[in-house]
Amino acid sequence: MIWEHDIQIIIMLTQCVEGNKKKCEKYWPDEGKEHVYGTVQVRNESSQRRDDFILTECLVKSDDSSKWRSVRHVFFTGWRDHGTPETPETLIKFVRTCQGMFGPRRGTEPPILVHCSAGVGRTGTFIALDCCLQKLETQDDIDIFHLVLGLRECRRSMVQNEVQYVYLYECVNAVIQEAAKGASNDEPIYQNLEELNAAPN
User: Is 131 a residue of the active site?
Assistant: First the structure.
């Protein structure tokens, strides 16, 4: 899939093992190593630990090609299964960091691969917040309920539970509060803040 769809960024939101239970195979080699997975050769050029994630730069080549492609692997380490990161700011910062790696998206770029263990809870919450942050850059209001509903129409159980759903509201609330600093009370952003504060918990 990585080769077929020319994936350039992989965002991993799960540990390989959580609570003595395997959640994901380690599908990339250690730093400085090279490994063959089926018909695809992967070389780990470098791995750097950041605040809440590990950034690995890989080169990937298929047996039917002589060209190597660059793939960036972003491994977020602070998110337990069925739960949420420690604070809203933790995920906001990470999503914004990833958005900086993506660059502007116009719909013609290769897809970005996001995964956790089941591909719905943490993955859905990340994708939903990414969408929310993009929308908040260009509009004053946002409909989180219908955004999540739309994701669930594409894949069942996206944003898997109430804890993650409420956390998504908390993240958007934090972003709006941040943007509201210095704004006057008559601006639309305050109305949105009141609506978010009234969200179910």
Answer: no
